[in-house]
Automatic annotation (TrEMBL):
This is Tetratricopeptide repeat protein. Keywords: Membrane, Transmembrane, Transmembrane helix. InterPro entries: TPR-like_helical_dom_sf. Gene3D superfamilies: Tetratricopeptide repeat domain. The chain crosses the membrane at residues 7-29, 35-55.
Amino acid sequence: MRAKITYFALAAALVVYFVLVGSRGVLLIRQGTAITVTFGVAVLVLPLIGVWFLWKTTQFARKADALAAELEAEGGLPVDELKRLPSGRVDRDSADEVFAKRRAETEDSPDDWRCWFRLAVAYHDARDTPRARKAMQRAIALHDGK
């Protein structure tokens, strides 16, 4: 729950920032000179890219949460079998062992979104965020039939 609150607080802050930057872009365009119009258009592009990125990230998170809820209802969520250090962080060797199991499971059933979901969790536990995101995108695509 803390992660969701943090996400929405940061998203709200970004929206405020996008509005402020966008208003500055409009003010520059209203100046009417060639250079201020050029800068104004360039400044307006940044919030547009930011809004697009925020939208895509939010959609990704919502779809991943929906998959997690569906997998939980089926009783298929991965069990936390990771060893932890005294600091609470995941032991790297333990994460590598679990990852090897999840990778083998996914190789055996490459068209099962559940395997890809569990692989994404294993990537995340191994602190490989880019691959975790790609594996989750694959799970979402397989679930949606794409």
